[in-house]
Amino acid sequence: MLFNSFEFIFIFFPVLAVLYYLARRHFSHNAALLILTLGSLVFYSYWDIANLPILLASAVGNYAAGVGIARWRHKALLIAAIAANLLMLASYKYLAFFARIFALDIGESVIPLGISFFTFQQISFLVDVWTKRTQPRGFVPHLLFVSFFPHLIAGPLVQHHQISKQFQDAGRKDDLVDNFAVGLSIFVIGLAKKVLLADNLEPIAAGLFSRADAASNLGLLESWLGVTAYSLQVFFDFSGYSDMALGLARCFGYHLPINFNAPYRAASIIDFWRRWHISLSQFLRDHLYIPLGGNRRGPLRRYINLLVTMLLGGLWHGAGWTFVVWGALHGMMLAAAHLWHDAKLPPLSAFVGSVPMIVVTFIAVTITWVFFRAADFHAAGAIIAAMFGNGGLGGMPNTLDAALVLLGLAIVWGLPDTAAAFYRNLDPTMIATAHVAPPTSERLQWRPVKPLAIALSLLLIASVFSAAKVAPFIYFAF
């Protein structure tokens, strides 16, 4: 079920919350964890119960490997366990892709929902056990770490050390008012991002890419409008999901890592990747970029490591050459930015100012989104050519479409991101890890006051009515 569906909002979530807190109050912390784990498995099975054995087998195998690594400290066991995870991910997600490269006909396999996320999370568990950042405590907490429903399908990508101690905290005192006031407020904001903004931007973007697929003539104005709409859509959709995940976890008293920190206000591509999909960026840094050598083996090796990391990051998003190109473009931009920095040249913002660099960074990221969204290179090339005037100016865009895109830009550039608005109410460690700064104005901070409660209630009502036509999240495909 989707977070923006009626059955989730009005049945699954309230029933599970009541059962969880009744268990904590009248039975035990472990009983509450068991209920939360079973509820998460029900949530996952609702999509397709045939995928449940894959999730359970992955959890059992990795827990056993973690126990073995903690006991025997054999690096060969760590390598074998990580390889097994990557092999499972590749067999479901990339086998058909590589078969097409070698002209083999093996058919398309159904990709289990969330496999990219729960596989990477378990790799983080194995590495955390090896580096002694954490220890396997019991199978139920481990299964909950893997299957916790807020982050199970599309993140954030939670590393084991970030949440394992929270699951072990049997003496935690529940502040139900604070948990639900903060948690539901964040959830409503995320829901509004998804159903009021992302889902209404989607037809604008889809119209452009459909015309490109059909080899229609594209004009400059419609191309920029459609691609900008997609750039905003993917942000509001994914950050909306992450907000909902953060809020739902908080309703149960848990803190997930912050996944977005106003990425479209980044003044460089380096800054963008510190703000966008933060949990994936940190995972790739810790488990790929640094093991490859990071920046410890000279500038040239650093640039190669950046390119390899982003290439694999692109491939993680999807088994297709367009995703590889998307990752390669970001890798090249990151390498160029670090090359500029290594040459000890002053930042470009020193010449033109930070605002123009924010716009330039946004434009560069927006152009790369074309490859992320396009069905193939032909469609991507047609759109990019039109964006640079190959098809002429074209007709005037729809006024309402243009107004919605302008509204989206005003929100991402004019309002604080969710983490900043809830700066005082989120876990300080998560705030520091995501480098979130509080908003400049006190009025933009969340407070438990009646006017804000009324505004959020109206936002919830509008979102619920708009959610009558349920649309899946973009990152469910990854």
Written description of the protein model:
This protein is mainly alpha-helical and 478 residues long. The protein folds into 2 domains: 6-173, no CATH class; 181-268 and 347-477, no CATH class. It is built from 22 helices and no strands. Helix 1 packs antiparallel against helix 2 (29-47) and helix 13 (278-289) crosses helix 14 (299-317). The longest helix has 38 residues, at 176-213. The protein is globular. The mean pLDDT is 92.
- As residue ranges, the low-confidence spans are none
Give the number of domains. Answer: 2
Beta-strand percentage range:
under 5%
Structural class, judged by helices and strands? mainly alpha
Shape: globular
Report the radius of gyration as a whole number of Å.
23 Å
Total of DSSP H or I helical runs spanning 4+ residues: 22
What is the straight-line distance between the termini?
A: 17 Å
Number of strands: 0
**What value does the average pLDDT take?**
92
Helix content class: 55-70%
Order of helices and strands: HHHHHHHHHHHHHHHHHHHHHH
Largest beta-sheet characterization = none
